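DM between two lab members

TW: hey, do you still have the Chymotrypsin-like elastase family member 2A entry open?
JB: yeah, one sec
JB: this one, 271 aa:
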Amino acid sequence: MIWLVALLSCAGLIGAEEPFNHKVHNDRVIGGSNAQPNTWKWQVSLQYDSYNDGKFSHVCGGSIISSYHIMTAAHCILSMNPAYYRAVVGEYNLYKYEGTEQFLKVDRIVVHPGWTDQLEKGNDIAILKLASPVYNNGYVSVANLPYPGQTLPNGFTCHITGWGLIDFVGGVPDVLQEAPIDVVGHSICSQPTWWGSLVLETMVCAGGDGIISGCQGDSGGPLNCYTDGAWRVHGVVSYGPAGMCNQVTKPTVFTKVSSFMDWIYSVSQTL
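TW: and the structure you got?
JB:
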C-alpha cells in the first residue's frame, strides 16, 4: 500500500504516521493491470497483526533481498515488535490460497538509523530478518539490486508493482498489480512546481503524468527496472501526494536503493 502520504504542511503534503492503507484491505497500483502470475518473484506482502490475535492484513510491499531478509520502507514499521509482522512471499491473490505462498515470521527489524519519521528527510528504508528462510518453490526469487550510486536517466521506464489502492474510488482487484512508470530526473523533480526541496538526491521520482502512480498500500514495494541485463529493484515506494495519488507533476517518490547499498550489505551480513 503506498505510503504515508506525504508531508505537506507548508509544501503541499500532509504528514502521516502509518501507511495509508493500514486499515484498507483491497487496493491496487493506479493505472495498472493484473500482473502475470509468477513474474515479480521478489515481491512481498508485508502483513501486520494489529491486535496480536493472529489476524494479519496487508499493510505494505517489500522485496526479498536474501533468503533471510526483506527490504521495505521504514514508515511501514508501525511497531518494532517483530511478532506483529509476517512476510508473505510467492503471493498473487491476497484473498485466495493458491499453494504458492510462504507465510514467514519476522525475527528482527532494523530501521535505517537516519530515519526520523519525516519523509522529506529521507532514509525511508528498513530490513526485516526472517525467523526461517525463504525456500525456492519456483514462485520466489531474490531481487537483483543496482550498483552503488547508480542513477537512472530521465524518462527511463521501470515498473511499479503492488497491491496498493486505486485511490479513493473504483475497482479493488485482489491480485498483484503492475504498471510501467517513467523516471523523472532529480533536476526536474526538485523544481518548485514538482516536489521542490522535498525530494533529495537519495530518492527516485517516477510518474507524475496524472495517470500512473503508486498509492496507499504500495509503500515499501519495489520500483523494478531492467538495467545491466537484469530486472533490479532500484527503488522502495516512500511517498506521494495527499488526496488523489495520480497527480500531474507529483510523481511517486521512492527511496533510491543505490544510495543505501553499503548499509543494506552491512545489515544483511550482520543481522
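TW: got it. The helical segments are 186-189, 261-270. The chain has two domains: 41-142+263-270, 157-258.
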